[in-house]
Automatic annotation (TrEMBL):
Residues 24-521 form the Major facilitator superfamily (MFS) profile domain. It is found in: Cell membrane. CDD domains: MFS_ShiA_like. This is MFS family permease. It is a multi-pass membrane protein. It comes from Chryseobacterium defluvii. The keyword Lipid metabolism does not apply. GO terms for cellular component: plasma membrane. The keyword DNA-binding does not apply.
Length: 526
């Protein structure tokens, strides 16, 4: 049967092959897109989740704990790559990524069902962590399967173009997660969203997974794997052949340190770190950040396919290394420019631009005390609006005294951008997305071509998921830590210090890639 399927595919005309590959790409991409959506909902809602699943007495620690839980999903991805990669090389690509889809879908749905920390205490973060780890394992098996599956249907001279469609799914998944959150936020009141509405994006995932499962179930196995299986050429022990064989293991290491590692940090800087920077460092209100990011991602996504197609013409290495080099040189100037675009010292307050009011409510823990909020809004001549809330704990005798002095006020500030500044920031994020498309567009074809069919799923999945899951996934937590430390130490450019991590990792990767990677695309394993 499988030999027959391979012969059928080989005997097709170019037009029939193109039609077949479009159905393959649709089925693979839809599932992969949903898995990315599931994975990123957690990151996009990190600020809200930190108040639901972690103790609320220290917001910074709660946010860092949420980022650490987010990162945990990334760190286990290589283990998912090993487990499911082995399965994919033993029993086939199709069945393996059916399983990963279902694990991911149910884990996401259940995160949306977990009661809050206030209701079940420490069980809440523990359950979230377990489900997050399951998400990471599933994603570890998904991407390698989808990329391998599409690549094995693609004509070798167009492999970069066809696999680049799979590369759009990660950004599209992030884009859709932002849109779903935006729609949910605008449909519900702030209280409803904070109370239960944040769960809706997690629940929606189960519907999308159902549709994708039905589509994937009807797909055939990849022709190259079918041929290898019918000829008895599949691997008996993919893990041993991939990593126990010195010659192959050398290519695994090269794929990781010469390509995937740098690609991983550039991907996360251009999408996740940019988003975190806008929210946490620049204090832009979250709805504006979501729409700003969604616009930049929407404009940038077609370039995955452009650079995938171009890699078929001029080689994968040239495009990926150029993308890394430009990113390394441009990150600090770009982020400096982003930060200074909302520098209030250079703006003029509009006439009658300041409004102030005071509100009070009963303290939730001490009924005799109040929480008094001083609310100040400042409108600037360019249309920028700054809202600042200072909340103080007030007793019948006046401010509450702690350690011999009044308890510190809790201050929160958000900036609403003028249209000009918003479009300028969209442009700066868009440039970063272009760097992402340069390194990420060609990488699926590049990794697939490094390894033979019999151990391809296992061998390509591991370097990809260490590069993205470990080096990339740790970026938000490491960069946030570097920025916080620099700010506490009083550095003048504290807001740029988080960038040393992606610049350093991408710099090492660029040197290794330039020296050791081949310039020509490799079709030897077909």
């Amino acid at each position: 049967m499988s030999e027959h399927h391979h012969e059928n595919y080989e005997n097709m005309t170019e037009r029939q092959k193109n039609r077949t590959i479009w159905s393959v790409i649709t089925a693979s991409s839809l599932g992969t897109l949903i898995e990315w959506y599931d994975f990123y909902i957690f990151g996009s809602l990190a600020i809200v989740l930190s108040t639901k699943f972690f103790p609320s007495d220290n917001p910074t620690a709660a946010f860092l704990s949420t980022l650490a839980t987010f990162a945990a999903g990334f760190v286990v991805r290589p283990f998912g790559a090993l487990f499911f990669g082995r399965l994919g090389d033993l029993i086939g690509r199709k069945y393996t990524f059916l399983v990963t889809l279902l694990i991911m879908g149910f884990s996401t749905f259940l995160i949306g069902c977990i009661p809050s920390y206030e209701t079940i205490g420490f069980l809440a973060p523990v359950l979230v962590l377990i489900l997050r780890l399951l998400q990471g394992l599933a994603l570890g098996g998904e991407y390698g399967g989808a990329a391998t599956y599409v690549a094995e249907y693609a004509q070798p001279h167009r492999r970069g173009y066809w696999t680049s469609w799979i590369q759009t799914t990660a950004t599209a998944g992030l884009f859709i997660s932002l849109i779903v959150i935006l729609v949910t936020k605008t449909t519900l009141s702030a209280e409803e969203f904070d109370g239960w509405g944040w769960r809706v994006p997690f629940w929606i995932s189960i519907l999308m997974v159902g549709v994708s499962y039905i589509i994937r179930k009807n797909m055939k196995e990849s022709p190259l794997f079918s041929k290898a299986k019918s000829e008895g050429k599949t691997s008996k022990n993919p893990l041993k052949e991939s990593f126990g064989n010195k010659y192959n293991f050398k290519f695994v290491l090269l794929a990781l340190f010469g390509a995937a590692m740098g690609q991983g940090v550039i991907w996360y800087t251009g999408q996740f770190y940019a988003m975190s920077f806008l929210q946490k460092v620049m204090n832009i209100e979250s709805a504006q950040v979501d729409s700003l990011m969604a616009t930049a991602l929407f404009l940038g996504t077609p370039f995955f396919v452009v650079f995938g197609w171009l890699s078929d013409k001029i080689g994968r290495k040239a495009i990926m290394m150029t993308g890394m080099l430009i990113a390394i040189l441009a990150y600090r100037p770009i982020y400096d420019s982003m930060y200074k675009s909302v520098n209030l010292e250079s703006k003029t307050v509009a006439s009658n631009g300041i409004t102030e009011k005071r509100t009070a409510k009963i303290h939730p823990e001490t009924a005799a005390d109040s929480l008094v909020t001083f609310h100040k809004e400042t409108l600037f001549t360019d249309g920028t609006l700054v809202k600042k809330d200072s909340t103080v704990h007030w007793s019948a005798k006046g401010p509450v005294i702690k350690d011999g002095k009044p308890e510190e006020a809790k201050i929160s500030q958000s900036v609403k951008l003028s249209d000009n500044t918003k479009w300028y920031l969209i442009f700066l994020v868009f440039i970063q997305v272009i760097f992402v498309t340069m390194v990420y567009g060609p990488i699926a074809a590049f990794l697939v071509e490094m390894f033979p069919v019999r151990i391809r799923y296992t061998s390509m999945s591991l370097p990809y998921h260490i590069g993205n899951g470990v080096f990339g996934g740790l970026l938000p937590a490491v960069a946030t830590y570097l920025v916080t430390t620099a700010k506490d130490a009083g550095h003048a450019t504290w807001y740029l210090e988080g960038l040393w991590y992606p610049i350093g990792v991408a710099g090492i990767c660029l040197i290794i890639g330039l020296v050791y990677l081949k310039n020509k695309n490799n079709n030897i394993h077909d």
